[in-house]
Description:
The protein is an alpha/beta fold. The protein is 22% helix and 36% strand. It is globular.
Amino acid sequence: MKRIGLISDTHGYLGKDVCSYLSDVDEIWHAGDIGTLAVLDKIRELKPCRVVYGNIDGASLRNETKALECFEVEGLKVCMTHIAGRPEKLADSIKELLAIEKPGVFICGHSHITLVKYVKERNVLWMNPGACGIKGFHKARTILRFTIEMEKCKDLELIELNRYPSQEDNQASTG
């Protein structure tokens, strides 16, 4: 059994409040737009992690991460990338990826909109954790936490944080 903390779109900000929600997970997964090496380093200090880069991430972050990660955890195949669209409107490359890899879980970021949806026609659980950074149009910062056990996701939590963190948390941010 593995407990996962899923985040995206930090855009150079990883607040103390986010870190506190990630303290009790086994792994942290970041679905892109990390923003700075300092944020990536902080995530790596907290827990083992799996990270993909996003469209705002420069060469230094792209040298440290990949555009796509496909891996297996507790018998469950997972694919993660930053930009994928929505389940109803996929880029051809994502359609092809899902057909070839056949993951049980597909993760993306980019939209800053949280979405968890089982896509029956593709037999995949689609997850977008929204954004936990402070840059962007989102009204709340969000994190997903869940457990993977015996090839299944369970105990899914959506954590919603204030859009504008407290002054204390803001001073403790990374980036």
